[in-house]
Amino acid sequence: MRTVGVEEEILLVDPESGEPRALAAAVLARADLDSEVFEEELHDQMVEFATQPRAHMEELGAEIVRCRKEAAQHAGEIGCTVAALATSPLTVSPSVGVGRRYQWMAEQYGIATQEQLVCGCHVHVSVESDEEGVAVLDRIRPWLSVLSALSANSPFWQGKDTSYSSYRSRVWQRWPSAGPTEVFGSAERYHRRVADMVSTGVILDEGMIYFDARLSASYPTVEIRVSDVCLHADTAVLIATLIRGLVETAAREWRAEGEPLVQSVSLLRLAAWQAARAGLEGELLHPETMRRLPARTVVQALLDHVSDALSDTGDVDRARAGVAESLGRGNGARVQREVMARTGSLRDVVAECVRRTQGH
């Protein structure tokens, strides 16, 4: 069974005002750094944690919950708290970390770096080789926008409703190496493309290959990077479950010599934009036809696509229940807007998200 690991970026916020606080260094100083669970990020108002690779989704879910609570504990010791928000609903002036890498990015990309205070969820799934990994990347491309819609959790930006469900994904597209990719066809072509991009000098190194899905530079995994950090831990587990199903389904297609579904990068960008705009509230582009259909129909198509793989890992009932819960309760974007409609206060939005982040 393929193992899965999750990386979540979360905001540090003031428990009273809800405003982001630049206290990452203090939080990390209180964390168990030897565990390599928590890491600094581009901005001082956020931290990242990474789970261990897990084969069973129950264990992965328990670890996500534990890491969120541990982050909240460390933050509470210095007078702040954590929120699984992909963007800050309240106005913020982000501060870039002092590390050499982050300062290079600030100099190279200017305001795009300064404004990049966004939190994502990255999912790693084990693969047997780079060849299998690239075959997977080639075959999961059309389905990634559906994951973006399910995870959408960033409707507000600098105190305003953006009219998007995932505005984080639109901000992320400012990086020159971000977004969907064409079909590579082989690991050799993939690595050649990465080397060519690094050699331009526009990006610093391989770590700045911000494809929607990529081969990990550090682990024998594919890394899927399209999701907002999810408001609810169970949504993060659902995303990880569906992604493992996608990876296994794609690997089986490759071994059976099935060809990837070739949708152009132009169409994939449109699908990603539509998912960011609509989330689960409107229509999405169906990955196979690239035509608009109700979000519920397209999410069901994803579930059907990976159902055999999910059945073999014992996850199909969990995934069906998770999809039903997400469609009924809504993603983080819907929750945030419902709180705003009810209270008229973005501070109350943050407070409710803090509560849900910690499972209360």
Description:
- This protein has 360 residues and is α+β, with helices and mostly antiparallel strands.
- The chain has one domain (4-357): Creatine Kinase, Chain A, domain 2.
- The chain has helices at residues 24-30, 57-76, 100-109, 111-114, 130-140, 144-151, 167-172, 187-199, 233-255, 265-278, 295-305, 307-313, 316-329, 332-343, 346-357, and strands at residues 4-13, 38-40, 46-50, 81-83, 120-126, 156-157, 160-161, 213-215, 221-228, 283-285, 292-294.
- The strands form three sheets. Strands 1, 2, 3, 4, 5, 8 and 9 form a seven-stranded antiparallel beta sheet that branches.
- The mean pLDDT is 95.
What is this entry, summarized?
With 360 residues, the chain is of the alpha+beta class.
| Topology, number of strands | 11
Task: Give the helix level as a range of percent.
Answer: 40-55%
User: What's the gyration radius in Å?
Assistant: 19 Å
Shape: globular
CATH class category label: Alpha Beta
Low-confidence stretches: none
Catalytic activity: L-cysteine + L-glutamate + ATP = gamma-L-glutamyl-L-cysteine + ADP + phosphate + H(+)
Protein name: Putative glutamate--cysteine ligase 2
EC number: 6.3.2.2
Family: Belongs to the glutamate--cysteine ligase type 2 family. YbdK subfamily.
